[in-house]
Protein 1
Amino acid sequence: MLQYPRACGPYKIVHVRDLSTGYDDMQPDKKAVLPIMKASQMITFTFENGCVATLRTSGTEPKIKYYTELRGQAGESVDRAALTQLLDDIVNKLVDEFLQPEKNGLIPRSP
């Protein structure tokens, strides 16, 4: 069985869904409800702080793409600058620790 990371930097990962293998630890039977796509890699990490990050390979180009989201808690005032800074830090940790661009010869996207 694959071992998935349980943290990224200081950020604890509480759920993992891997649609390339059909694994989803949010489901009682650990099987993904969404369609499995063995031809392309797609893994979603849900963090304790509510951040959700999906990493996937492109189906048409030699690229790795990622999508992230983070929201404030319902009913609480939101410090948008603080949330943006937190999300930026999580993204930087994901890229550095999971993708390891220098080690893997990946070229970062243009700013």
Protein 2
Amino acid sequence: QKMNEHNLAVNGHKRIGLCVGGKNFDTTESTLLKETDTFFWAMLRSGQWQPDDKDGRYFIDRSPEKFSKVLEYLRDGEVWNLSRFSVDETSKLQEEFDFY
């Protein structure tokens, strides 16, 4: 069976490659599907969105810096101490979480 990078398993979980705003991220399908009724749930379960680059990555035209915070949350479920962020930064992070 031929497997490309997109389909490799990581600890028994399907590996997913994302390109967010030009920066590559790798995670697992189970991480992205931890929460239901999300952007990722629709992306991976609808069957209508396919990876769109030669490396099998899904392209998402969003901020990679903010996305890294979303991915951290999905991986470990921890919420940060928002007091270290300005009101503007907190608002922008909330917008990003709302998107996903």
Protein 3
Amino acid sequence: KNMEASNPQSSDYPVTHDTTVTLKCKDTFTSSGGSETVTCTDGTFSNPSFTCSKNCSIPSDWVTKNMEASNPPSSDYPVTHGTTVTLKCKDTFTSSGGIETVTCTDGTFSNPSFTCLYWWPFTKANKVEIS
């Protein structure tokens, strides 16, 4: 379940009947929903009412697809479960259109519905003559 005891520490076990234990998500996971405490009753802990979902790192295929995160910026990764990220094409590439946002769901980003196409900037300085 990607959880661990934060109070009392795991070195303090076993615990006595009616002891309340605070749980936390392990590193790289985010807590969502419910209480983070469980109680020991007759040698068995109650079930936690929260879940721990994996955070997302930048997928390597964004690099090969010439995409990068614009909001939040690439320096803010990993991002927490549930975060929506806006993507953009790298310089000299343009979007084919489509949805440019993806959402982190338990360690995996949804797939973007656009591609980044190489764009040749036709300006007066680099005009191409076709004969």
Protein 4
Amino acid sequence: SSGINAEYGGLPYGGKEDIFHYFFKVAWHGEEEALNIIGTGENIIPTIHVQDLSNIVTSVADAKPKTRYIVAVDDSMNSMTEIITCISKNLGTGNVMNITREEALLIPEINQRVFDILSVNLRMEGTWIKEGAKFEWAAESGILENIATVVTEYKESRGLLPIRICVMGPPASGKSLIASQLCQHYKLHHLKIADVIAAAIEKLEKQAARAESEEGEEDDEAAQQAQETLDLLNESKQENNDRYEDQYIIQFFTEKLMSMPCQNQGFVLDGFPKTYSQAKQLFENKEEPEDEDAPRLEYNAKIMPEVVISLDAEDEFLKKRIMNLPESVVAGTHNTEDLFLKRLAEFRALNTDDQTVLNYFDELEVHPEHIDIAADTSSNMSQVLEKITKTVGKPRNYGPTEEERLELERISMEKQMKKEALEKLEMQRKEEEEKKETQRRKEEWANRVKEVKQQEEEVLQAQSYPLRNYLMKHVMPTLNQGLIEVCKVRPEDAIDYLAEYLFEHNPQVD
């Protein structure tokens, strides 16, 4: 409110979205087959763009109108079905489905507040804002008429901008591995030639099959066109050595790149386009600018890769890589020796002229980043992946889901537990080694002490040999004779007698 004025606004939309955020989020992800419409969806929901609501509040504060109650709504009077269908067509699969009110309340993102607001059924008209408010409307006609701008605002406000990458390189350079890892890291769509063609053929076959069903004239006409396209494709394939012509492959890729999933999350082109001509046809801008004064871009900015990666390697390195693959992995694929060498020769032939696919990107100032894969010593090219992610930057999406977050936490916990277990084992190993080392040192010291004692005894024994010989030769005979005399005479003082005897009979030693 402002002063005595009371303002009543319609359901706000625009920017990051609030009440409608659940529907925008589900549509952007594209994982659900259809967007949910609560109940019959016939209720009229009054709406107002957040920028217009802000302008109305400012106008009321400036003008101070006498009108006591002011209704802030746009000109639209759209039902829930119309709004949800519009969001689905411009951001998601284009499909909608009705769910009961009870089912809606079971959806975590639809709390009681959101449910109550989406359940309103009101036809409101803003009289004063048409006559007294002076401002430039952002979306006077409502969300349906301005959905393109609203979707752009939503993506930009939440940083949900597509990441477009092209990975090039010779056969066996690891393009598909790197592309797959990038898609997993950034939650992008992996576009391989075989998969894109197969998906396009399957789509045409489904459309052609509708000719037999009891549908309207439009579906019948679309089915006939699909069948005609299939016939042309088969004819082209037979005439071109079991290959499709470039014009059809370009058409399939263009449709895929312009599809809602690729425009929402982004994509990784895996080894396509292969030639300068293919690149020029694929990315050519076929639309005229809305503003006549604006310069016309040579390429379609909606599908032009923002990052181009060239995985470089010498032929010998690639040959060794193929030769080191197990026979069970190579058998039945295009990586057999003959097929690999043929594909490698074709790649080199296409990338020797001035007009190569990398030259095309260079001319448009989208300079390829060259990475030498031979310098990567990891088992799964993680070093190459790290370089590319540094170039691309952070993911531009909602981040991990609750299930993914729990899975990441589980993996992180397992890694931590494994790390702690390894550290514990390492500590135990070191302690065991220290104990063994201590025991070894003790035993070594004991052996040294024993050895020293033995050496000392040997030295003493060696030193005692001359004295012993002297005593046995010169002293012991006289001493023995003296003892015999003592026994014969039996003097009162045997010691003194023996001493006198020894002095008297002391042998003279030269």
